[in-house]
Design goal:
mainly alpha, 9 helices, elongated
Length: 129
């Protein structure tokens, strides 16, 4: 059983997973389920309620969602962080992490970035005519 099965049981098919399998209690990721439920306008208040009552056991949290939510297919892609080319150049030259590279990017100007890009050029011919 994985996260997809848990979310399908909460949103669509309403199967009582905690009654069927005894090991579900250890596999239920309460934080991730609350985060996924916060993506939708009709479930955000349920997710907020579960975040306020984080100390409840996992079966109670699961049942709260299962009995409280209407049956509906809810799918949302995960939001992924976009990679900035300038940040990648700074990280490669100086060996910084993302936060430090962002600070350096704020300090460097366009000329500084151009100099860093030129220092990364490995050689070869780019003009093929």
């Amino acid at each position: 059983m994985d996260l997809k099965d848990i979310l399908n049981s909460l949103n669509y098919n309403k199967k009582p997973l905690f009654d069927d399998e005894p090991k579900v209690d250890r596999l239920y990721p309460a934080f991730i389920v609350n985060r996924v439920m916060s993506f939708f306008t009709d479930t955000v208040l349920y997710a907020n309620e579960m975040n306020c009552r984080w100390e409840l056991d996992k079966k109670m949290q699961f049942d709260f969602y299962r009995f409280g939510l209407r049956k509906k297919k809810r799918f949302s892609p995960w939001v992924k962080k976009q990679s900035d080319e300038n940040i990648c150049v700074i990280k490669e030259v100086y060996g910084y992490n993302d936060a430090k590279a962002q600070e350096v990017l704020n300090i460097l100007g366009p000329e500084g970035l151009k100099t860093l890009r030129m220092s990364l050029e490995k050689g070869g011919s780019n003009n093929k005519e």
